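Hi support team,

I submitted a single chain yesterday and got back a structure, but I'm not sure I'm reading the token output correctly. Could someone confirm the output below corresponds to the sequence I sent? I've pasted both exactly as they appear in my results page.

Thanks,
R.
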Amino acid sequence: MAREIAEIPEAAAPLCAAWPEAERAAAALRGRAFPFAVVCGRGSSGHAGVHLRYLIETRLGLPVSASAPSVVTGYGRPPRMEGALFVTISQSGRSPDLVAATRAAREGGALTLALLNDAASPAAQAADLVLPIGAGPERAVAATKTVVNSLVAGAALVAHWAGDGALARGLAALPPRLSAALALDWGAWAADLADAPAAFVTGRGLGLGPVREIALKLAETLRLPALGYSAAELRHGPRAAIAAATPVLALRQDDPLAEGIDALVADLRQAALRVHACGGPGGSLPWLAPGHPACDPIAMLVPAYRAIEREARRRGLDPDAPVGLTKVTETL
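Hi R., thanks for writing in. Yes, this is the structure output for that exact sequence:
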């Protein structure tokens, strides 16, 4: 896991520049009037799908839904997809439920696009279009560089599809920012997790996918129950569960939603709760100068991953092979 985290900047770099695969995929989408889009992915790939959803909805105005593969595999009721865009995100491309959902969407009239690390996988064969994320082999069960490349691939696709020059420039600047993020020490946050019975991670909008991804890594790598919430949601019911013993990590990108995250951080601190914030005037963790708001939450994964991996080893846990987990999920 440590080695693969260190490989993130190099693995992501080809996707951040003039990436012909993204342009070809975007050309196939451009000009088509999709009534809606559906994103299909589980776990870390699902979190990349949340990021992609915000990009598609904010840059292209196209409503996006999350797929429930068990509707196809368990209930045997493929939804009507005529004319829609169906995007599958998977590291292996071999999870039977994702493959079945992709095949059903294609048979139901959707244009299917797969973002995959294995371009020869069953999911690739089931899709109309394939966007290979090119992260290279990833051996640790806890995915890191494939997650970052899935996020970057989705952003590159939207940059080309929407003709978003600012996003394209943000991606071009991302590889050196990922390298700089490797040097950031979030040990203070990790140390605060040592005696915690649970933890919270929060953010909004383009940061929500990475927020949920960090919560997953805390659970699978540190065996720590962790919840990733929108900062808007955390002000309501879940707020009652935050206590002095449950640290909160807040991710804040520089966009119109930043004010709400700043306000939540200030309120939690006023209540004498433990909050570690990345970005903005209330930032307590090391961070970079603000970059593109769609790219910064991706870069924030890097110091979070490093802190989690190091904390796992400090506890005597093996972050490369969490108990009870395998690399490919086979359940339907």
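A quick pointer for reading it: The first strand starts at residue 37 and ends at 40. Let us know if anything else looks off.

Best,
Support desk
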